[in-house]
Design a protein that fits this description.
InterPro entries: Polyketide_cyclase/dehydratase (IPR019587), START-like_dom_sf (IPR023393)
Protein name: Bet v1-like protein
Order of helices and strands: EHEEEEEEH
Shape: globular
Radius of gyration: 15 Å
Strand order of the largest sheet: 1-7-6-5-4-3-2
Helix content: 10-25%
CATH architecture: 2-Layer Sandwich
CATH class: Alpha Beta
Length: about 150
């Protein structure tokens, strides 16, 4: 049986949106130091719709993402998983990172949302793995911001 699942994690950072966007915009996850070993831009330039990223994780997994939407006005980047070694338990995965300015104190709300389509009984494990990784990545973003 196929199912669709959405995972959303968020965090507020005591930093202006421009500073947070500078780390997130390239979608190279350079801030995610606890999990990412290396990241390279392939088939295009950083910050270019259609370009791809090859992310090598410290656990040995290698994934390629394609930037499908990028907005400097809306402070959002959307990317799609196009290849994974080892294979992941989903048939499709689209991720969006959105930033929102909190006007009260010039902080930034970061929302990281993923939509998955999966087959079989893997939905629960996919959701929990995604949730854990997002929390870890957002904690590393906080460290990169010095917060």
């Amino acid at each position: 049986m196929n199912s669709a699942t959405r995972v959303l994690e968020s965090r507020v950072f005591a930093a202006p949106i421009s500073k947070v966007w500078a780390l997130v915009r390239k979608a190279d996850f350079a801030f995610w130091t606890s999990a990412v070993a290396s990241a390279t831009v392939e088939n295009g330039a950083a910050g270019e719709v259609g370009s791809t990223r090859k992310i090598t994780f410290k656990d040995g997994a290698v994934q390629r993402y394609q930037i499908v939407e990028l907005s400097d006005v809306a402070f959002s980047v959307t990317y799609e998983l196009i290849e994974s070694t080892p294979a992941v338990a989903t048939s499709a995965a689209i991720h969006t990172v959105r930033l929102f300015k909190v006007t009260h104190d010039n902080s930034t709300l970061v929302q990281w949302e993923s939509d998955f389509s999966s087959a079989g009984d893997n939905t629960t494990s996919v959701v929990e793995d995604s949730r854990l990784k997002k929390k870890e990545a957002l904690a590393d973003l906080a460290k990169a911001l010095g917060k």
